[in-house]
Amino acid sequence: MIYTDIQLKEKIMQMLESFESEVVEFKEAKTNYSFNDIGKYFSALSNEANIRGFQEAWLVFGISNDKKFTGTEFRKQGGLQSLKKELVNGTNERLTFLEIYELSMHKCRIIAFQIPPTIRGIPTTWQGAAYAREHESLCPLPMNKVDLIRSQIGMDWSKEIVKEASVEDLDPAAVKKARELFSKRQSDRGKAQEIYSQ
To answer: Rounded to two decimals, what is the model's pTM?
Structure first.
């Protein structure tokens, strides 16, 4: 969803009142902010949004961690929207912000970065590393969270056993082709393997 100014102001107020801390990060960013840190937060917030079933996560500049409006001068002279293109070069799957908003609240300039959840089954990385949130800090994406994201890929039906099936349910042409490919694979590996036809 792309927000109007009014919708976004309401959304920010809701986030300030009661927000899921793992998918929202407030930063003062009074004058500038590290591009590398933006990339790390993008990865972490994207991964956390996916794990928690959210459609988006937020990195908000101009509001302090204790929820005070401070305003930000980050890229005030321009180049704010070019961050979308700049970020693509460091993320896997060419992910970038859904939108970057610039608005005024309480006489302060606020920038809100709308971050998509990671693609199902693939953790979002920044410069080759996947990040997560741990309270107020960033950390490498723990293996249990990696497993949660990777487990979202659909079930591989080809590995499933169908208890009611028998050999008669298989297509003879497909069985013949499978035997040929298996035999070739075994001979390519230097193994003598004899496949018996039935």
So the answer is: 0.76
